[in-house]
């Protein structure tokens, strides 16, 4: 029984191959590395029916993940998040078949747990004892907590404006937490200098090749949850874009191994950004292959405040290949959509997830999403991590008071 | 195909039977009502293997739940939360086989989602259009959000000291939210007066019979996750005690239908309370059948600040029947245990869950938990809902600064 069909790493830019049994970071050419599997052998030896009876977490797909030995798996039960029909909200925006993949129902309350589970497990397997990383909050929280479970030391650098609760998660895990009076790009530079100076493993987004493998399980789960079929459109809030790259990679791997038809039309992937930070949208509109640094970025959807993503070219490639698109949403629109989603469906989504619902509404109104299409919205985190997005002015009674109507 | 084997309701005190097809609240004798099923027919017609391939949520046990028609199910994907081995923490307290059932990985971030999903679904099925309920925060948040999805109006009354984030959840759902400068018992009195005056459905804990059916799925899941076996001990943070009553009910039902052996020794159930609010512990120590109002109750584990539970006699019965016990933990102990759990296992548990880990440590030290026993701790919610239980003093750098070692 082969636990993982991992074969090697490769550079999507200069096509150099790398040994996956060694710790690797970026390609010498500066590009992120991607993980390859022996998909031919996997297709012969593993059937999609084999996973049906496994535990409902992302490790049910372990053959398509990089961890070689189950003993190295660091898991808190992440994955197989619900895919929920949201028909009332769908009717409200004219999308009959609207679904929410709810990534708030996961350890640490955000989809970052997927990348952390697989990234930390693989780091442990390769002997990493300490890492540093910049974060907009949720990724750092997830990596800090999974690192604690793995017995790995971590240094997390996040902007002072990152969601407060993610500080607590890092602090309670015992991580070395540092704030920076700036953006995630500033945190990244501080981490880069520390990595250089102290010889640490660099856990930055896409500077290690394995978190993308965790994120890709969102794509595998969507296919399995549709009965090994795919929807027409998947919308994803795009900061670093790892999830979108991962979903695209997953669906192509599933085609290769025949778990979904090799000739099926892949879902059109949509990168949703904020008007206050829309480098991918700008690049897509200009039909470019990569993005430029987005100056003075600012948005309430803090997780997608990423002015320049290292994997921008992979995100754009996924959009072009699937005939998807990129779209920017204002903070006002997303806050309105967050309230609508809660009121109509009882789902308290994060601001990034709300931006994606708003994007679905806009794309349906413009006709880009056609009548009857099956549309999946990724809600990347729990609304409870963002208390400041909701204001509650509430009357206070004394015990002897009565309610009025 | 019978979706639910619901037969009727009965009073556990005076044994009066009630028609389940009508809206029912308390028994005329003042006791909560319990739900009965046609377990004989269920045992003949449904096998435990039948549920294996179903979706990983609590509705996989729909035959043992009260909702008659699948069309009335109001679900956000709740249930089948992970049962996670916590071996490092276990070793630290001398419990070799320690598991955490993590109820933070659920919509609304607390186990209250189970009661809300089943309670609201059944209320919808019975035609309820509006309800009122008192809450210590999490239950109200869950009921408000599920009610929004069901299209039912809700009035939620909670203490001013309840976790702030639960206010936001109620507010964003569109519920009618009111605070009271007092305890949940004061909120309960305000709700009782409003129910009387305006003819509302009373959603108070155990004043409607169905939330307990949602909570009992924790017990069914534990059995299924152990391969239709049971652990030796289950520890549960006890406020209203509905989960403990539900787990006990579930395990007895599973014995009756033969999904676990009819003659197996049921787990010893442990009610964990706070030293600042320990009415069940006091009653148990005095070998009483019910509890007395606990004066001036106060604890940081807000969810278990319930000075007098309506179902106290059912909780105590479950403890006596299973040879379990009741134990109180100080706020200092639980805060220390919360930090230990995060540092050793990467699990950021809620204060109530932390109290239960502390109780396991104490009971192992005293020998009440024996060497080698399989012990399950219920973590009833996500730590991220309680930011004030962790303090993070963090250095702030400027972008040009460097990390030091």
Description of the structure:
The structure is a homodimer of 405-residue chains. Chain A contains 13 helices and 14 strands. The first copy, chain A, has helices at residues 39-45, 48-51, 87-93, 112-125, 138-150, 164-173, 184-198, 211-225, 242-257, 279-285, 312-321, 331-345, 351-365; strands spanning 6-10, 17-18, 34-37, 83-85, 97-102, 130-134, 153-159, 176-180, 201-202, 233-237, 268-274, 325-329, 374-379, 396-397. Helices cover 37% and strands 16% of the residues of chain A. In chain A, helix 6 links the parallel strand 7 and strand 8 (176-180). Chain A has a domain at 83-109 and 211-386: Rossmann fold (3-Layer(aba) Sandwich). The model of chain A has no long low-confidence stretch (mean pLDDT 97). Chain A is globular, with a radius of gyration of 21 Å. Chain A is of the alpha/beta class and 405 residues long. The interface between A and B is large, with 83 and 84 residues. Strand 14 of chain A pairs parallel with strand 8 (176-180) of chain B. Chains A, B: This is Threonine synthase. Chains A, B: Residues 74-381 form the Tryptophan synthase beta chain-like PALP domain. Chains A, B: Keywords: Lyase, Pyridoxal phosphate. Chains A, B: It comes from Saccharibacillus kuerlensis.
Average pLDDT over all residues of chain A: 97
Number of helices of chain A: 13
Determine the most extensive contact between two protein chains. A-B, 83 and 84 residues
Strand numbers in spatial order across the main sheet of chain A: 4-5-13-10-11-12
CATH topology of the domain at 83-109 and 211-386 in chain A: Rossmann fold
Task: Determine Rg of chain A (CA atoms, Å).
Answer: 21 Å
Largest sheet of chain A: 6 strands, mixed
Name of the CATH architecture of the domain at 83-109 and 211-386 in chain A: 3-Layer(aba) Sandwich
Q: Structural class, from secondary structure content of chain A?
A: alpha/beta
- State the share of residues found in helices of chain A, binned by percent: 25-40%
Q: What is the number of E strands of chain A? A: 14
The oligomeric state of the chains shown is: homodimer
Shape of chain A: globular
Strand content of chain A: 15-25%
| SSE string of chain A | EEEHHEHEHEHEHEHEHEHEHHEHHEE
CATH class category of the domain at 83-109 and 211-386 in chain A: Alpha Beta
Poorly predicted regions of chain A: none
N- and C-termini, Cα separation of chain A: 65 Å
């Amino acid at each position: 029984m082969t636990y993982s069909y991992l074969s090697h790493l490769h550079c999507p830019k200069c096509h150099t191959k790398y040994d996956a049994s060694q710790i690797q970071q970026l390609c010498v050419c500066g590009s992120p590395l991607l993980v390859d599997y022996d998909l031919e052998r996997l297709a012969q030896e593993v059937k999609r029916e084999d996973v049906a009876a496994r535990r409902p977490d992302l490790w049910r797909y372990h053959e398509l993940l990089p961890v070689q030995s189950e003993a190295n798996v660091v898991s808190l039960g992440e994955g197989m998040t619900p895919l929920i029909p949201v028909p009332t909200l769908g009717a409200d925006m004219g999308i009959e078949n609207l679904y929410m993949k709810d990534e708030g129902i996961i350890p640490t309350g955000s989809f970052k747990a997927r990348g952390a589970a697989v990234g930390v497990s693989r780091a442990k397997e390769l002997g990493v004892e300490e890492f540093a990383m910049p974060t907009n909050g949720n990724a750092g929280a997830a990596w800090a907590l999974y690192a604690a479970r793995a017995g790995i030391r971590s240094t997390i650098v996040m902007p002072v404006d990152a969601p407060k609760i993610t500080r607590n998660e890092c602090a309670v895990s015992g991580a070395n937490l540092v704030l920076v009076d700036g953006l995630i790009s500033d945190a990244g530079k501080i981490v880069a200098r520390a990595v250089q100076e102290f010889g640490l493993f660099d856990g930055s987004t896409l500077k290690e090749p394995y978190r993308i493998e965790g994120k890709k399980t969102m794509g595998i789960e969507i296919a399995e949850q549709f009965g090994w079929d795919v929807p027409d459109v998947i919308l994803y809030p795009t900061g670093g874009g790892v999830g979108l790259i991962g979903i695209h990679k997953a669906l192509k791997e599933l085609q290769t191994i025949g778990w979904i038809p090799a000739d099926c039309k892949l879902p059109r992937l949509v990168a949703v950004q904020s008007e206050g930070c829309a480098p991918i949208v700008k690049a897509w509109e200009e039909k470019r292959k990569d993005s430029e640094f987005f100056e003075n970025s600012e948005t309430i959807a803090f997780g997608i405040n990423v002015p320049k993503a290292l994997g921008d070219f992979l995100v754009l490639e996924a959009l072009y290949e699937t005939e998807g698109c990129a779209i920017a949403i204002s903070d006002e629109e997303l806050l309105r959509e967050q309230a609508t989603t809660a009121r109509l469906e009882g789902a308290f989504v994060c601001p990034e997830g709300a931006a994606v619902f708003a994007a679905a509404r806009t794309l349906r109104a413009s006709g880009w999403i056609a009548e009857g299409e099956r549309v999946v919205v990724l809600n990347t985190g729990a609304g409870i991590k963002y208390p400041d997005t909701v204001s509650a002015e509430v009357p206070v009674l004394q015990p002897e008071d009565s309610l009025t109507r």
